[in-house]
Amino acid sequence: MEEKKANSQMKLHTFDELKERFYVYITDKNAREKIEEAYHFAEEAHKGQFRKSGEPYIHHLIEVAYILAEIQTGPSTIISGLLHDTVEDTNVSLEVIKDKFGEDVMNIVDSLTKIQRLKLSHRSEDDFVAEDHRKIFLGMAKDVRVILIKLADRLHNMRTLDSLSPERQKVLSRETLEVFAPIAHRLGMNTVKSELEDLCLKYLEPEKYQEIVKLVEGKIKNGQKSLDTMAKKIADDLFEKKITFQMESRVKSIYSIYRKIYEKGRKFEEIFDILALRIITETELNCYEILGIIHSTYKPVLGRFKDYIAMPKPNMYQSLHTCILSGDGNTFEVQIRTKKMDEIAESGVAAHWAYKEGTNYNPKKEQQEIEEQLHWLRDFVNMSEDNQNAKEYVEALSHDIFQANVYVFTPAGKVIELPTGATPIDFIYKIHTGLAEKAVGAVVNNVMVPLNTELKTGDICEIKTNDRSAGPNEGWLDIATTSFAKSHIRKFLTKKNAEFLKQDKIQKGKEQIIESFKQLNIGESDAQKYVDNQDLWKHFNCENLDDFYISVTNKNPTTSAVIDYLNLKRPEETIKLGKVRKNEDDGCPVYVANAGKIAITLGNCCTPIPGDPIIGYITKGKGITVHRKDCPNIANENRRLIEVLWKENLSSSTYPVDLKIECYERANLVVDIMSVLSQKKITITALNAVLHAQQNTSTISVTIYVQNADVLQDITNNLLNVKNVYEVTRATH
Rounded to an integer, what distance in angstroms lies between the CA atom of residue 730 and that of residue 728? Predict the structure, then answer.
């Protein structure tokens, strides 16, 4: 079988042949002259430069422009194709490009140049590749013309790959399979996609490639006569019905066959659509008429009919597919489509937005129209903003965009494309991220379903909303399958947790002030009047009362510092052991055996909690402060220590604990830690994260409230199960 343009001996086109190609649809004299000017400019700029294969570099630029002219791109795109390497490989500046060819061309060339200059040598090899791929995606997503030029550039490079070393051939082939072929597929550019994939396979798996080539050659040899007989019979029937049509045969791409054999475990003999008949007609009605005529003569294979006219693919592909038995033991696929459908099927977005003269071409408007039609193009940018890790970003693109093959309808009939396994939650975020905050349920095919229901192609999904909805919760993270949805859920939860944390700190600070003032015989209402004081806030660098309460919770200032600033008089009291302290808190969880009531407080430095081994420290004038036995602040004390005990049958009060969480840095780490604490219903009153850039680690300090040491141990175990967390310790001050 002849390999289409798959070797370095392929014919090189001349500029005159390029002119013949674009003269077909570009008739404006000025546009034609500008393209020719760009050619001569590029020829002069690259003079003396040669490719690895030996030919002058200008031939590569002509071939790129020729590919662009084949899909009928506009003058600016062809000019940019001719100039795409001038800034990178010559002394030509962007300013010169702008002066000679305009700002539009300059912007395209600038984007292409930035993509070429990807160098991140400080990263590991995997990160290097992932970051390169992310920048390629983002660089191309800004202007579809940049995508078309990069695809044309890569296609010609792959056609001439024989001149490079085997190692370089494999590197470029892998990148092409991971980046460029999927993009061509999503743009509906089937011709480009198939050729890229076949060329990649030729260099990555040469033995398997040649094996499939021989199998296909044998299939053509044995089945061509049967296909021709069937085609003649169908043609006679269509002539009789006076239906206008064109007919051609198609051979399935080598890479598609490779995937079915080696990835899906199919035998070559079980692949029915290796040889196919394509019928191109005038109207949609003709398509269905032809389908009826064929099915009245040949028996269709059950389950092999697909109507992509009624339900187009998101890349705009439309066609009828049926698989029929020829009657002599052979099975063939038949594709039926209109001429316009065929153009879009082969060239995709390039055909849909092919250059048309006299239409006041507006590249910005065209890009907007393309993004509205191909909404996943926006996701290139959105997903990068949501995910700072390059490897995760590329993996998310592969799953959410390139592997998306489930088509779900909105009640209005709009097609939403999702990956296999997607749920109504993924559907919600594809519709509109704001919808999630009001969502309360999903209706699929007129039936109320759980949010973890797996959606399938053809489902009609409707999201039920309520303004009183609590919005996304932690459980949604386990139900969502797309990175796009998970990222937005985490954002919402982080914001929600931050607001909860703020309100909780305000309440804690208020309670601490009330409790401290109570010991001065100052009631709650009077205490609040004392601190509702702008001078007080300003003194402690707070802007308002809420900020003041938050600062008190964070112990900056302490309640003692507030009392001292307000110059409030403390009541006379005796602090010696055996005496009762005025306004003693009878709810203290610690006592001293055989000592009666004593002023006892839990140390702020080591934050002991019920279940901890503890010791008392007799302070001067303040009773006893309880410390954990391993507290460094009492390590050198001997004389003023006293044995203290936890009371039995303590109430369900909670006590503050300061934790230090040591982690290897990664995206969304703080969110995951807060999610664990939230799921355990643990109150958080302070959180601070410090990044150690050189070690790529971080320390997260958090103050939580727990009932006892057993609960703390359970929390510690759960935190250690969080990915990248390697140590959790109690902090002392």
Answer: 7
Could you say which architecture CATH assigns to the domain 209-352?
A: 2-Layer Sandwich (3.30)
pTM score, whole prediction = 0.58
89 is catalytic: yes
**Average pLDDT over every residue of 212-221:** 91
3-state secondary structure labels for all residues of 379-430: HHHHHHHHCCCHHHHHHHHHHHHHCEEEEEECCCCCEEEEECCCCHHHHHHH
Whether residue 433 has pLDDT greater than 80: no
How many angstroms separate the CA atoms of 445 and 411, rounded?
A: 9
Q: Which of 23-27, 273-277, 416-420, 677-681 has the lowest mean pLDDT?
A: 416-420
Active-site residue 372, yes or no? no
342-385 pLDDT per residue, tens: 988 887 766 655 666 655 556 566 555 555 555 555 555 555 44
Looking at per-residue pLDDT, the higher value among 675 and 141 belongs to: 675
Superfamily of domain 15-204: Hypothetical protein af1432 (1.10.3210.10)
Neighbours of 329 (CB within 10 A): 8
How confident is the prediction for the chain on average, in pLDDT?
82
Neighbours of 298 (CB within 10 A): 19
> CATH 1.10.3210.10 in the chain, residues?
15-204
In angstroms, the first-to-last Cα distance of the chain is 78
- Active-site position among 88, 127, 205, 511: 88
Catalytic hit among 43, 89, 346, 662: 89
Q: Is the bond preceding 571 in cis, omega lying within 30 degrees of 0?
A: no
